[in-house]
Amino acid sequence: MIDDADHAEPTLLDAVNLAYNPLLKPAQRLACSSPSGKALLPPACDKVLEWHQLATHWLGNDPQRNWIPIHHPLYPASLLNLKDPPLLLFAMGDLSVLALRSIGMVVSRSASRQGLQTARDFAKAFALSGWAVVSGLAEGIDGASHRGALQGEGPTIAVLGGAIDSLYPRCHEPLAHDIVQHGGLLLSEYPPGTAPQPAFFPRRNRIIAALSDGLLVVEAALRSGSLITARVASELGKPVMAIPGSIQSTHAKGCHAMIKKGALLVETANEVIDETSATLAPGRKSFDVLPLPTEEIADSGVSEGALSEECRQVLSVLDFERCGFDSLVQRLQKPADWVLSALTELELEGWVFNEAGNHWIRAK
């Protein structure tokens, strides 16, 4: 782990005081972050001393737990382009991941099942191509993106909206553990002991945008935090891409608005990789990967030609927009149990999704 012996200035106490002292205004913090500005730091108050104690306890002697002050050699240079870069980062996992070329993946939390599958497939394809995946460990597509990267045996970075020792949502604690165990990284600008708060999550998004070499929005409502991330990425000169959806879907409205404003419409993982590669900063690294499959996104189920005749009939009348079960029965002019049996087989093979209200949607 990084310790005070590795860098004489600042000490952990100095870094905590700089980042969190309530007496300092944002502009003052940046001025005090340079070696010459250290003398301007006010004395550590009781709250700073408490945070320092909590941070020291959390770090312990675990080599996977680290703190990275601004201007340290391991601090991500891309974060310095932000108007308000985090002055101190806490990390758990492999710090070398920060040097890898990466693609950020964001979305609103209320994702559709089709969106979740798309995120997993794209993230897996990125990992198989040697790209790390950056996301926010939130419910929905964030979690699906991290899982997809792990399925592709690639590292992934989770930028948190709270302290690393106060993971949110709690249901993603096993996922966070898997990320660290498989060579990824958990990253937070908040000190140990800090509970997640609603205001933290939009601020977390700027770090995702800055860390990523390109940003992909899989699904987004019109008032989604994903749009904040996309705006920051665009301001930083990063390519911003969006996957289109149905004009009737609220999950696609934000993506369509972004595309109208200049985001690149993409349909495949290779398009995202090509666009991001075109503006990749020098020095960004890859990692060893297995050869990419012939098909960019490998299907886990059987091919359409190998499906039963009943399943192929259902697919012939089911498209990529939600369709109620009763409507399917009417279109097919078949008994309800016949249709349900075919849908069940198709769902097991990954060809369809069953959404709330007994609605069905084609997945591929």
UniProtKB/TrEMBL annotation:
One Pfam family of this chain: DNA_processg_A
Gene3D superfamilies with a match to the protein in the record: 3.40.50.450, Winged helix-like DNA-binding domain superfamily/Winged helix DNA-binding domain
Location of the Smf/DprA SLOG domain: 68-275
InterPro entries, alphabetized: DprA, DprA_WH, DrpA_SLOG, WH-like_DNA-bd_sf
Domain named DprA winged helix: residues: 305-358
Family: Belongs to the DprA/Smf family.
Protein name stated in the entry: DNA processing protein DprA
